[in-house]
Design goal:
Radius of gyration: 27 Å
Order of helices and strands: HEEEEEEEE
Largest sheet: 8 strands, antiparallel, barrel
Strand content: over 45%
Distance between the termini: 66 Å
Length: 122
């Protein structure tokens, strides 16, 4: 009768030795939510960055850092925002509505019907 007891004890010791050490977790920055932060243009004739901060909107040309437009934005829904900005080059005011398609993607359309996308900057 001792034989099954020793066999089970040996099996338990072997299985205990096969367990792996806990895996280390690598800390990563949380994915930003909402519109706040820095975004970059996707496609289009001019590469630019857009910043949403505390209700203020600013876009800058990526190559030179020159301000392209400044204005304000208002969150109009859980994944929607409305932007009203003034173009630095022409001085024209434009209205834009954006939908956040994913944490890192905005799909926008301006008052003239032109569509464009922004991708969250790292």
């Amino acid at each position: 009768m001792r034989h099954p007891f020793f066999a089970l004890s040996a099996l338990a010791v072997l299985l205990t030795g096969c367990q792996s050490a806990p895996t280390a977790r690598i800390a990563t920055a949380p994915t930003p939510a909402g519109f706040e932060g820095n975004w970059r243009s996707v496609g289009g004739p001019v590469a630019y960055t857009a910043t949403f901060a505390g209700g203020r909107f600013t876009s800058r040309e990526s190559a030179t850092g020159a301000v392209l437009a400044e204005g304000n934005y208002t969150k109009t829904g859980p994944a929607q925002t409305s932007i009203i900005y003034r173009s630095a080059a022409r001085g024209e005011q434009t209205s834009v509505n954006c939908n956040q398609m994913a944490a890192d993607r905005l799909a926008c359309v301006n008052s003239a019907g032109a569509r464009f996308e922004l991708s969250r900057s790292a």
